[in-house]
């Protein structure tokens, strides 16, 4: 049984209230400091009060392993992403970041043109920092916990597993994409303000990129010969602390003496990076939250969440955290990935739908068997419906097993990529 407040859109009201109260930190810090703790306390007490009456603990326990596997997969991809972010920043050196001009972005031009055409009040709304990454994460947490109130289909851990698994796939694809081709930042000063990598390129880039970076005739010869023929001159080396078994990361992270001797601390500093990281990780989180909200809860509130997504996208472009292409790609990639992972959790009751389809097919036979008082035939027909239900359960279990297998394969893949690149760079040096 649903709680009335949630049934008529209470979850959407609470979500909008949370975003509005958090925005008070920009308008009235005093009221923000009063209302935010009150809201969280109210939500926590409501959840605690509801826990003893929750009826779906068995399904939650069955979803625990896929959820934990998805979390582990997510952490693995975040580690790989952090390594990739540091790599694309360090491999060409700080001088390249300051000299490389930003890419032409028609989306940025359009927003600047709209600033001249739209009323000032509308422009201020577009510029306002209404919602950020942490808001989308908290909106999803609210959504998952709302299973306690039967406003979202249980299990909540199943919904969480699908969210984390989809996001992990998205982050892995994102890292593979932006590490493939290094693009200049929309903020040329970013790398100098955040990183302490060497100013000059890595020896790999000095040999394979620098001699062919600008001269068209040299590039034409490179295409014809398909071999690095230019003399790079005296190749500059890097600072190489003793990292033991992790020393293969030196060529990826390119540490400097001022950054300390820990490889882990360098990865923690990677953050969002300064290059153009196709596609936007922030927008991926926003789109997955909107997709989860639309499927699990729906209603007018889902339209509001999608408005937040679009608002966040134009702000990413307006503030030059990303190019327009990063936000556009993140939107359709997020939508497609979410559509592909419905085998983990879905708001649609697949088993019930298949039972109804099967019942429609055998309806005439069942009616005729009842008229003939043929009990054995009735039992056989009902058994067919039960078999259909068991097949649906088996497919769901195979889908959950697929999560574990994909996690294992993706982890092995990431490890192989790192080892292969480390071997290539080490043998080249």
TrEMBL record:
Membrane topology of the entry: Multi-pass membrane protein
Entry keywords, A to Z: Lipid metabolism, Membrane, Sphingolipid metabolism, Transferase, Transmembrane, Transmembrane helix
Keyword Magnesium: no
InterPro entries: Sphingomyelin_synth-like, Sphingomyelin_synth-like_dom
GO cellular-component term (any): endoplasmic reticulum membrane
A matching Pfam family: PAP2_C
Gene Ontology terms: biological process: ceramide biosynthetic process
Record-annotated membrane-spanning stretches: 6-25, 37-53, 65-88, 130-149, 284-309, 329-347, 403-425
Domain of life: Eukaryota
Gene Ontology MF terms: ceramide cholinephosphotransferase activity; sphingomyelin synthase activity
Location relative to the cell: Membrane
Family of the protein in this entry: Belongs to the sphingomyelin synthase family.
Protein name, as recorded: Sphingomyelin synthase-like domain-containing protein
